[in-house]
Design a protein that fits this description.
Elements: E1 9-13, H1 19-24, E2 31-39, E3 42-49, E4 54-60, E5 63-70, E6 89-91, E7 94-102, E8 108-113, E9 119-124, E10 132-137, E11 145-148, E12 159-163, H2 169-182, H3 190-195
Antiparallel strand pairs: 1-12, 2-3, 3-4, 4-5, 5-6, 6-7, 7-8, 8-9, 9-10, 10-11, 11-12
Length: 200
């Protein structure tokens, strides 16, 4: 999960969940498809399981293996401008934690920590109204994974994600899973969304 993919690429993520389903789907629903990805030849299926746990399943030669999962336990809290959280993940059986921090007066970022001392920052690129997000390894400047996002309730798909040859499958899946989890709850802190003219 953490080995380099070896080839740069991109994918369009089409969320199979509709806004109506998000609003009405019972928490006990055992399975709801979210997206199917081809990441450098790796087929990954993303789906909600019971209690809306988002699970990534790697499919290889007909064999299926769950490789990542997450569920947002904490609800949005804090100030009006910065009431935003992203769910912690388990990738390849190891925890990945996230901590929300301010980057400056109008921008935000998440500090991410994974197994064996791996650390990243997930942040908006450019100004407050940018639609581009990037995942950057600690100590590096170049983004490994970049994607476009929209904060508005009715403007969440499709998600265009790209990665460098040095990125791993785990690093591609983390931001994709965060975006899918937040798809119908708002992908940006309120201050940043307002700066972009998004309507809640």
């Amino acid at each position: 999960m953490w080995s380099p993919l070896g080839a740069a690429g991109g994918v369009t993520v089409h969320d199979a969940l509709t806004a109506a389903q998000f609003a009405t789907l019972p928490l006990a629903t055992p399975y709801q498809e979210r997206a199917v990805l081809d990441v450098a030849g790796h087929r990954v299926e993303l789906a909600w399981r019971a209690s809306r746990e988002l699970v990534a399943t790697l499919v290889t030669d007909g064999e299926r293996r769950d490789v990542a999962s997450g569920r947002l336990e904490a609800q949005d809290s804090g100030s009006f401008a910065w009431s935003f959280h992203a769910m912690p993940l388990v990738v390849a059986g190891e925890p990945v934690t996230v901590e929300r921090r301010r980057r400056d007066a109008v921008r935000w970022e998440l500090r991410v920590e994974g197994p064996e001392g791996r650390r990243w920052t997930w942040r908006s690129a450019g100004l407050a109204w940018t639609g581009r997000m990037e995942l950057v390894r600690a100590g590096e400047r170049r983004a490994l994974v970049t994607h476009q996002v929209h904060a508005g309730f009715a403007q969440v798909q499709p998600l265009e994600a790209t990665w460098t040859a040095q990125a791993s499958l785990g690093e591609v899946l983390m931001p994709v899973m965060w975006v899918l989890d937040r798809a119908y709850r708002g992908l940006l802190p309120k201050s940043q969304a307002i700066a972009r003219g998004e309507v809640f």
